[in-house]
Amino acid sequence: MSAGLPIAHSPLETFAEPFAEVSGPRVRLAELPFLAQVDVRADPSDAALMARLGGVLGLDLPTVPNTAVATPDGSRHGLWLGPNEWLIVGPAGTEGKLEAGLRTALGDGFGAVVDASANRTTLVLAGEAARDILETGCSLDLHPREFGPGRCAQTLVARAGVILHQLSPEPEYRLLVRPSFAAYLATWLLDAIDGDSSA
Fold it and tell me: What is the value of pTM for the model shown?
């Protein structure tokens, strides 16, 4: 029997059933494991470099703080993390090709490209009740006039550090959280949904 590749396990694979149990017409909770996540640092004033990076990504990296952009098909997102830092999020299994392409585009330019896929897993919280539930543990103003589709932020949810990204007006949120806090945050969200009468 050949050894083969090790089987990958997501931090929240044991939560699939509890997530399904609380999900319904007004709220949905799920894990999106193993998404490609590549951290990019580059000089945004270098137009040629930014164009090369954008060519690889199929999107222009956002320069407005706390915003996110997506490819036309929505498969890849570029999230602003700082004046010269972005997180690229894409389909599982694409991180190697993505990292290599970005390194080539970076060339000798100022910056860095790091595969950060193992640093976080992703929770999806969506539905009419999602905003109300999230607001009970997050100090950001999540009203649509302040935080809507195409917005992202590094923040705390129930004292767990996350990257929060809103994808749609529904609303649909992604919460990117480190594996060591994933079970804690998942448990908090399950409790918050269970205790929310609107959900």
Answer: 0.94
